[in-house]
Amino acid sequence: MSETDLSHLAREGLLEPPADQSTGELVAHDGTGRVELTFAPAERSVRVPPGVSVFDAASWNGIAIDSTCGGHGTCKKCKVQILTGSVPVSRLDIRSFSADQLNAGWRLACLAQATNDLRIEVPPLVTRPKAATVGVGRQVILRPAVQKRYVELTEPTLSDQQTDLARLLGAIDDLELTVDLHALRRLPTVLRSADFKVTAVVIDDVLIDVEPGDTSARRHAIAFDLGTTTVVATLLDVSTGTPVAVQSMLNRQQPFGGDVITRISATMMDPDALDRLRELAHATLDELAQAVCKEGGVEPDEVYEVALAGNATMVALALGIDPEPIGVAPFVMSSATVSGVLASDLGVSIHPGARAVVLPALGAYVGGDIVAGMLATGMDRDKRMRLFIDVGTNCEIVLGDGERIVSTAAPAGPAFEGGAIRCGMRAAEGAIEVVRLGDDVELQVIGDISPAGLCGSGLVDAVAELVKVGLLDTSGRFVPDDVAASVAPALAGRLTKIGEERVFVLFRPDGAEDPADTVYLSQRDVRELQFAKAAIATGWSLLLEELGAEAGDVQQVLLAGSFGSYLSPASAVRIGLVPKLPVLRIVSAGNVAGEGAKMTLLSLRERAGAMTLLEEVRYVELSDRADFNDKFVDQLAFPG
Amino acid sequence: MSETDLSHLAREGLLEPPADQSTGELVAHDGTGRVELTFAPAERSVRVPPGVSVFDAASWNGIAIDSTCGGHGTCKKCKVQILTGSVPVSRLDIRSFSADQLNAGWRLACLAQATNDLRIEVPPLVTRPKAATVGVGRQVILRPAVQKRYVELTEPTLSDQQTDLARLLGAIDDLELTVDLHALRRLPTVLRSADFKVTAVVIDDVLIDVEPGDTSARRHAIAFDLGTTTVVATLLDVSTGTPVAVQSMLNRQQPFGGDVITRISATMMDPDALDRLRELAHATLDELAQAVCKEGGVEPDEVYEVALAGNATMVALALGIDPEPIGVAPFVMSSATVSGVLASDLGVSIHPGARAVVLPALGAYVGGDIVAGMLATGMDRDKRMRLFIDVGTNCEIVLGDGERIVSTAAPAGPAFEGGAIRCGMRAAEGAIEVVRLGDDVELQVIGDISPAGLCGSGLVDAVAELVKVGLLDTSGRFVPDDVAASVAPALAGRLTKIGEERVFVLFRPDGAEDPADTVYLSQRDVRELQFAKAAIATGWSLLLEELGAEAGDVQQVLLAGSFGSYLSPASAVRIGLVPKLPVLRIVSAGNVAGEGAKMTLLSLRERAGAMTLLEEVRYVELSDRADFNDKFVDQLAFPG
């Protein structure tokens, strides 16, 4: 699926947040539950947790309130009138409104916390709020943690001996800041070299630097999708939300094994492996950081924040945390969240005070990459029942209905990445990625060259098509030759033996080529795929059970990850990897881990949302389920 | 003066906090001013800022309330009964008392904030509160930032997959902690190697480590007095408040100059000097840290915090902050406070997560060493008028009366450290430190060897005695020979000339020794001392003026610093270095900078007190005073 499908989705309204009926009544709240805000004149209502600012609630609901500071309480443009319900008067309200206006309910929306049901009049826009579209059609109001403030300070005299820091902080006293030692070291020199005209660089509530002159237009951050196989870095201009450069490369940890378990095993067998794996992760991240800076024409010193989305093992290795307890029962992480991390702790040489946002993990096998994916797909926002599947060696599954979210991890094994498949290979040049069976075999090969093997999507297609034409029965066994000749005479000849094993030949090289280059699907390959898809199907069927739902209730299936995004929805349905649903309900979500990481850099609101997911999502451990094996056996067959 | 004088002071009650009459009435407060607490049955009253805990107010006033946790809200022993006035019920009160008891006013003192006047019944002690005596007779209730908690955790299972961190934090959930990455890295390994029986190491609200087994009895910290000349380190057991080891050495920055100005000049002339000076400060601090650990039999890893008291320049250099703006008008610091500093930022190799407390500075020339001295002498607590003088090249002066505190710095020049004095030398072996003139010259020499020169205290003595016997007139001029022969015939022969200059010979070597070893005081030496003491006297006289007080109002003069502590009070009075007061009112305070640093490590209360001083003390810049030169000339003469 391509971008067209996503915009199609957006047009369908599939990605809109839930809207409820407004009551307009003033309701006290007990710190839990939701409050309902109704925005006039649009008459749009939204239910939010108590304590959310009116500004955030509006942007969440796609209602634009005027702002040039992105909701930081500094531009004083986000004026709204509270028509029903009450909001206390803030310190800045007093500076912004007359007594009459305050009595009439005028407040700055960014400081107005919704603690009871409200009806709010939103004046027409004067300036457009700055927003960016990220992930699966998600609109994100720009409110990055990285802020810059240009100030022109008066110079000290004997009668004004304020310290350099007090002088600077006095000029930006709407922020309550602590100060990095690095910034303090630079402060006296920079102030005096720049005639006391400087730009303060702030992340959250920390002053991390002062820069000479006005550099406020230069604010960058890097989002990392730290995959076990592939690592992607996106350089963002956080002022505009624009991606400036994107680069990807193979994770340099590859020599230690292709999947998380082999890398964990390496640390268990060799005491030096943890250090080495950390260094390799750092080298990967830093090489990408330097590459995107170069591509984007941005100095590394102008990059003040990074976000890291990865599975729990990749994140642990990058942070130098022993992953062994993740790898063996009872599968325990050292922590779901990691705070106070610097980019330099990840080996990334950008601004020396740059911070790192590490996406939190839901469980040892539902990591920060999946939390990022949930942000990017708005899994926590949509009230329809949606199923999110990140297909891979470890397959993460999330099911939500807008009220409840459950997740699990299914051990699918390496089949989808070409592992344990006779002619399997990664989705690289020469891989068969699409298979169609009719009167003949129709193949689509990456790079349009002679086929060299079968990648995951080709494997699923091949099996699905063989089931469709009747050469594989629903139990996954190749039919006898006589049956083959009867149901698919044009293809029956390809059903043969290599060694002792029955195979279906997908590609047979012509005379000039090496017969060893034959690409085929063996009986054992089919079994591997059956085990993989059964693990996944067991996962989502147990999650459906948890929510008391049926497969048919699922209104959308999001296939995520580098493999899932290339999968044919029809084939996925046919082999039972996803519930049996109309194909249009099954959509590719793309690299949602990277998109979610970008969102946390562009929006503090989304960053907080990632933390909220930790509390909202219930993790279901499959290996602890007595009924797992039963269910698994049920799912082995193809739906037919 | 020696320790005897200090205990004498304490016996005199000179160091007690102020006590006022109790009114017993319930008085609302507006967040400023003081509230009055009266403790029964002792009937002691104390006035404290609103918001101070009853526990702190009691310990401040020397009233012991039962506690084994040092006021952390965990032992639940500090039960008191509020007889008059109101204190809200805290979360832990509900767990600790019955409804009847709560109604009768029973509260935990450590959580009871005094926001109105209170009358409080304190039950007799069951356990003794842990306290230490530090500084000038200051009693400090032990409440270090460094805490340890030994916990025995249940091991994870498939049905209890809590993360390691959640498991640990759940066991110490009265603390709200963030976690150092270092601690997180150690966590999985330490938990499993120690069968989930571990000790959490906490500083303030940060978990900095987990240690296998029960290490809760091992808690150490190092207090540094970072002098321009001498650096002193004291290793403390913060569980008991006991100093475990003390070491001192010369500041390794010495080759860059003997005083702060020459070191600042070095950074202005050589761009590499700042780095070099920082490295030398670090080398000094670390050498001392390793030495006290070795002496005390403590592993460096068991030291979790350091405190640094130094003048603003020494602190800037140690932190790698350019000191140039401190050295040139208008004399500006980069910051009065520095937070978030690690011991490793100071080059001290102890526990990798160890924190550094940097004593805040009041001004470019009234630094953290003086703030420490104010803590150690209780300058902010005593309601009598007291004058604190740290005599040195830069002389810091503080005047307080319990209500108001003012401070200034006087540029005394190097005379007191032996600089610019013909036969001047540091207070080392061979230095004349005491001079008495009668029928002959009586000298006291450090190390009881042949005199090699004159140190500061000897210089002050010599001049004071010469004024007393009439060989120097009050203008500071040696009297003519005929006058000398008349007023002091036994000494007149020592008044002679060396080159063109009149001198008084203090020590003339016998025939066997080199005549160049003669130790004398020259007319120019007297002038140097006059300038130095006039600068100091101008400082305190202007401070007296600021408070509308007279010299005679001063009830105690505290002479601080390595020089001030050795000064003869009588001589100090006679030359006018201190106000003309009864000698008993002039006391030596010892190395108060180091003592104050220790206090910040032993007591969070005192640490907060150091910050409070920043707001309470008004800094008076002398070089900005139009009347400075006038006053200075007035102070040049000796009082006679």
Key features?
5 domains; 640 residues; 6-stranded mixed beta sheet; Ubiquitin-like (UB roll); Nucleotidyltransferase, domain 5; 29 strands; homodimer; globular; disordered N terminus
Low-confidence stretches of chain A: 1-32
Overall mean pLDDT of chain A stands at: 88
Instruction: Assign the CATH topology of the largest domain in chain A.
Output: Nucleotidyltransferase, domain 5
Q: How many individual β-strands of chain A?
A: 29
What's the architecture of the largest domain in chain A in CATH terms? 2-Layer Sandwich
Individual helix count of chain A: 19
Approximate strand percentage of chain A: 15-25%
Q: Give the biggest beta sheet of chain A.
A: 6 strands, mixed
The secondary-structure class of chain A comes to alpha/beta
Q: Main interface pair?
A: A-B, 46 and 46 residues
CATH class (first level) name of the largest domain in chain A:
Alpha Beta
Distance between the termini of chain A: 24 Å
Oligomer: homodimer
Shape of chain A: globular
Strand order in the largest sheet of chain A: 14-13-12-15-17-16
What is the helix content of chain A?
A: 25-40%
The whole-angstrom Rg of chain A is: 28 Å
Number of domains of chain A: 5
Explain this structure.
The structure is a homodimer of 640-residue chains. By secondary structure, chain A is an alpha/beta fold. Chain A folds into 5 domains: 3-129, Beta-grasp domain (Ubiquitin-like (UB roll)); 146-212, Ubiquitin-like (UB roll); 220-358, 2-Layer Sandwich (Nucleotidyltransferase, domain 5), CATH 3.30.420.480; 379-412 and 529-636, Nucleotidyltransferase, domain 5; 416-525, no CATH class. In chain A, strands 14-13-12-15-17-16 form a 6-stranded mixed β-sheet, with helices on both faces. A 6-stranded mixed β-sheet of chain A has the order 28-27-18-19-20-29, with helices on both faces. In chain A, helix 8 packs across helix 9 (312-319), helix 11 packs across helix 18 and helix 17 (592-602) crosses helix 18 (604-616). The radius of gyration of chain A is 28 Å and the shape is globular.
